[in-house]
Automatic annotation (TrEMBL):
SUPFAM superfamilies tied to this protein: P-loop containing nucleoside triphosphate hydrolases
Superkingdom assignment: Bacteria
Name used for this protein in its record: Sulfotransferase family protein
InterPro entries in UniProt: P-loop_NTPase
């Protein structure tokens, strides 16, 4: 395995402003390169110069992580290494896994294999990592709505019981990060406290805290209203496949119709349970050694 550069890893997570963080990296590419840092991030939301394509195992092929995924992952990371750098900043919210498994009651079921693959592919220590976490109610709702924008999706209510009885949560993922990435310190940030992207980078890479980095203007995130999601699901249920531009036009056409249709709601009792669980889990994370929790 080729020797890599030490890594600083931004793990996302999903639906916590990862695109804004990656836009900040793009905005400061030249300055960060001058400081000796390579950058690797995907271009999932049209982020400039984002071309990371890091393929990691899913639940169907976790046992093949070493033979099937490790060589390609190592090669992919090496694409971003430059001769004069001393470390790499990696930002990829899909490292723990995908959100598609939430309605089945599975919280990143392939996280072990994915983290193990990344650690082996890096060929160098992971010095520090950042994980932005979000309360379970909003996380599950946001994940459902995001997927329903461009995929045929079952009714949200069909997955509520499983999401209420999720097999694990944020503390389990934190433990897996330590177990497989063997980070020296993990910064965990509660989503409402995330602040500016440049400040998150300063926590990820303390040496950059005093560097005058630019915070890009926040892009408006035009999430789909209930009316838009119902219109989209009607099209998908009829067997249509919509290109990105087409489904975005439907979202835009229904932007002003903010009337709730109950597309993605937990009951009040379920919300109380999930909110209580999230608070307990933050308390648990706060007591973990080598964790810096911002809440």
């Amino acid at each position: 395995m080729t020797q890599g550069k030490p890594l600083y890893v931004h793990l996302g997570a999903h639906r916590t402003g990862t695109s804004s963080f990656q836009m900040m990296l793009a905005e400061n590419r030249d300055l960060l390169a001058a400081q000796g840092y390579d950058l690797a991030y995907p271009g999932r939301d049209d982020i400039p110069q984002g071309d990371l394509r890091l393929k990691l195992p899913d639940p169907r092929n976790m046992g093949q992580w070493e033979r099937r995924f490790l060589p390609a992952a190592a090669t992919e990371l090496q694409r971003f290494v430059t001769p004069d750098s001393h470390a790499m900043i990696l930002s990829e919210e899909n490292i723990p896994g995908r959100m598609i498994h939430f309605p089945a009651g599975q919280f990143y079921p392939a996280a072990e294999a994915r983290l193990q693959t990344l650690a082996a592919a890096a060929g160098a220590p992971v010095l520090r990592a950042v994980l932005v976490v979000r309360d379970y109610t909003d996380l599950y709702i946001s994940a459902y709505r995001k997927r329903a924008e461009d995929n045929k999706s079952p009714a949200f209510a069909e997955g509520r019981h499983n999401m209420l009885h999720m097999d694990r949560g944020w503390p389990d993922l934190v433990r897996l990060v330590f177990q497989y990435l063997k980070v020296q310190e993990l910064v965990v940030i509660d989503y409402p406290r995330r602040g500016r992207s440049v400040d998150i980078l300063g926590m990820l890479v303390p040496e950059l805290a005093e560097v005058p980095l630019r915070e890009p203007a926040r892009r408006m995130n035009h999430s789909a209203t209930d009316a838009a999601l119902l219109a989209l699901q009607e099209r998908y249920s009829a067997g249509e496949t919509l290109e990105r531009e087409a489904w975005q036009q439907i979202i835009a056409a229904h932007r002003d119709d903010i009337t709730s249709r109950g597309v993605s709601e937990f009951t009040k009792r379920q919300t109380r349970i999930l909110e209580g669980r999230y608070k307990e889990h933050l308390d648990e994370i706060e007591l973990m050694p080598a964790v810096m929790l911002l809440r």
